[in-house]
Write a structure and sequence with these properties.
The complex is a heterodimer of chains A (about 325) and B (about 290).
Chain A lengths: L12 E10 L3 E11 L4 E5 L6 H8 L7 E6 L2 E2 L4 H6 L1 E4 L11 H11 L4 H14 L15 H14 L4 E5 L7 H13 L7 E6 L2 H7 L2 E6 L2 E6 L1 H6 L4 E7 L3 H10 L8 E3 L2 E6 L4 H10 L4 E7 L3 H14 L1
Parallel strand pairs in A: 3-8, 3-9, 6-7, 7-8
Antiparallel strand pairs in A: 1-2, 1-4, 4-5, 9-10, 11-13, 11-14, 12-13
Chain B lengths: L9 H4 L9 H17 L3 H22 L10 H8 L1 H22 L2 H5 L6 H28 L8 H28 L3 H18 L11 H9 L1 H13 L5 H7 L4 H31 L2
Helix pairs in contact in B: 2-7, 3-4, 3-5, 3-7, 4-7, 5-7, 5-8, 5-9, 7-8, 8-9, 8-11, 8-13, 11-12, 11-13, 12-13
The chains are: A alpha/beta (about 325), B mainly alpha (about 290).
């Protein structure tokens, strides 16, 4: 474990001013900064195209940053790419397997390339095969695996080298609900590996809320919020009211703000106006909209979720 | 919730720079992977053999009954060596399909994330392509001998043959790797294969000496690595007077001409192998 000048453990991931502009001028990542401590599960949360996978690509040295720098366990990903890759493993968004090879061959290949000593590799593989429930299929070719089995194999493969940094790029995308929840359970179990830092990208908000110690909300290549899920949720208070209006939602929001019934944290996405309830009552909001001649087709009050945080941070901006 | 056992050895992780696998071990591992994948797709090995074996077993003996000896050489044997120039490029182009499969639906990204120099991925493919070509050459030679080809071999002659065949195989696989990394679709790659693997074969003195070509085509043939490789291979196995090499260089020293032709094939091999690594790196890292 790398340490700082006075012997404290250094960050597992350190990203400063990281930027990627593709040929043609597309700015995929616009100068992001974050630090992840050893053992932490850190989430990059955002929609497709937000820049999450480009960020992972830069951290795993398959995409060259345009500017800024990034370190994995103290190793610069540009100047020491082999060292950076040695301390990390990746589970990719799409299946990255040789369909003609057995599951065991995949684990063995990873162990050899990450210079895991043969006996240690066999022992770890056996542990992982058991823990991930792959015993029945491990000697079959991957072509015959179900989607869930293949995903479990890919995660097990990434763990054979006991990485100090594990990248999980949209690990549950494309899986059916049952398998997705099984996999979330499995990923949650990785927390027992206290020496391992996990960087998870996802556009499933429940996934981030459930698994991550801290979450960076990424929008259009920039981090628009970074905090623990609890603190992010606390921004919207205890309860919100969601009103689906039949008129112009922007006009509705403007009216509520004008009358002091909505703060800056209220937002409108599509036909829905969402207002965090701090002091005001939902009844007063509905009365005000009715008084302004703005009809409502549905009303609901509920606890805020990361969905609301995300929409507040990005949806409103997109609409602005 | 599933709990995964903690087996981390923190003390082993102390230190500034982590230990990475040696280049030799990494190359061997990558070659083993490629070999395992090739073994599971026998078409890569069998299909390129079909046409050359057909030439050696059927067409060359049939033509030999109609064609006078070429420059005093047995035509069956002449064509048997000529079919090496068809077999090796076909074999290498088929091996290139594996590169496309790796990229489109295989484990290439996992290998790119591995702590090994990425040029070794190309190196591992080269090792297996050369090994498969060797097996196929052996099969071709056995078939040719079984059908009556007669080789006048000597230790030095065999060495000339091997050197020319391997350097030509390196050049051929270099082209295949470049194309596989530059062409986006497997269908397009397969469509381009005849132009790369078969067209030069008709110009390079495979079935007849290049002095039978029109002057301008003979000049083109002299640039092709296959022309030089075939002339060396024939010099090594049947053409003691080096007539093929003389058609190219017009010199009197057979050894000198063979060395010059080998240099030409080597330059092609080095250039195309280098290009294949560069093109791979450009396609793999953005």
């Amino acid at each position: 474990m790398h340490t700082d000048r006075i012997g404290r453990p250094g960050p597992a991931i350190e990203v400063t001013g990281l930027r990627k502009t593709y040929p043609g001028g597309v700015e995929a990542v616009r100068g992001i900064d974050f630090t992840v401590q050893p053992g932490e599960v850190f989430g990059l949360l955002g929609p497709n195209g937000a820049g999450k996978s480009t960020t992972i690509g830069m951290l795993t040295t398959t995409i060259v940053p345009t500017a800024g720098n990034a370190h994995l366990a103290g190793h610069d990903v540009v100047r020491e790419p082999l060292a950076a890759r040695q301390v990390s493993s990746v589970v990719f968004q799409e299946a990255v397997v040789d369909r003609g090879l057995t599951g065991r061959a995949h684990l063995d290949l990873h162990a050899r390339l990450w210079s895991v000593e043969a006996g240690v590799g066999r022992r770890r593989s056996a542990e992982l095969v058991e823990a991930f429930g792959l015993g029945e299929v491990i000697d079959r070719t991957v072509a015959g695996y179900s989607g869930g089995q293949r995903r479990r194999l890919e995660i097990a493969r990434a763990l054979v080298s006991e990485p100090r940094v594990l990248f999980l790029d949209e690990p549950t995308v494309g899986l059916d609900t049952r398998i997705r929840y099984e996999l979330l359970d499995l990923i949650g179990g990785l927390r027992a590996r206290r020496e391992m830092t996990t960087l998870l990208t996802t556009h499933y908000l429940d996934e981030a809320e459930r698994l991550c110690d801290r979450v960076a909300v990424v929008h259009a290549g920039a981090i628009v919020a970074l905090d623990t899920p609890e603190r992010l949720l606390a921004r919207l208070g205890e309860e919100i009211v969601e009103v689906r209006v039949t008129g112009d939602p922007r006009a509705a929001l403007a009216r509520l703000r004008q009358r002091g019934l909505a703060d800056d944290d209220a937002f409108a996405v599509g036909a829905t106006v969402t207002v965090p309830l701090h002091q005001q009552q939902a009844r007063a909001i509905l009365d005000e909209l009715a008084a302004a001649g703005i009809g409502s087709s549905s009303v609901a009050t509920r606890k805020p979720t990361l969905d609301d945080i995300y929409l507040q941070l990005t949806g409103d901006r997109l609409a602005a | 919730m599933t709990t995964i056992a903690v087996t981390n050895d923190v003390s082993a992780r102390a230190g500034a720079s982590p230990r990475t696998v040696s280049r030799g071990a990494a190359l061997l591992t990558l070659a083993r992977r490629r070999a395992a994948l090739s073994a599971r797709t026998p078409r890569e090995i069998v299909v390129p053999l079909l046409t050359p074996i057909l030439f050696a077993l059927v067409i060359a003996p049939a033509l030999a009954t109609m064609v006078h000896p070429t420059d005093g050489l047995d035509y069956k044997t002449y064509v048997a060596v000529g079919t090496v120039g068809l077999l090796v490029p076909l074999s290498c182009m088929f091996a290139g399909i594996g590169v496309i499969v790796d990229r489109d639906s295989g484990a290439r990204r996992e290998l790119l994330a591995a702590p090994v120099p990425r040029s070794l991925m190309v190196g591992g493919n080269f090792v297996v392509a050369l090994a498969v070509s060797t097996l196929q050459l052996a099969a071709l030679m056995v078939a040719a001998i079984a059908r009556g080809a007669t080789f006048h071999t000597s230790g030095t002659g065999v060495l000339w043959f091997i050197a020319a065949a391997y350097l030509f195989a390196v050049a051929s696989y270099g082209i295949a790797e470049v194309m596989a990394n530059r062409i986006p679709k497997q269908e397009e790659y397969i469509g381009a294969t005849p132009a790369v693997a078969i067209l030069p074969w008709f110009l390079a003195g495979s079935l007849f000496p290049i002095h039978a070509l029109p002057g301008w085509l003979a000049a083109v043939a002299k640039i092709l690595p296959l022309t030089h490789a075939l002339a060396i291979m024939r010099y090594g196995l049947l053409d003691r007077h080096a007539t093929g090499l003389h058609d190219i260089w017009g010199m009197s020293s057979a050894t000198g001409m063979a060395a010059l032709s080998l240099l030409v094939v080597a330059i092609w091999a080095v250039a195309l192998a280098g290009a294949s690594v560069r093109v791979f790196a450009k396609s793999a890292v953005h």
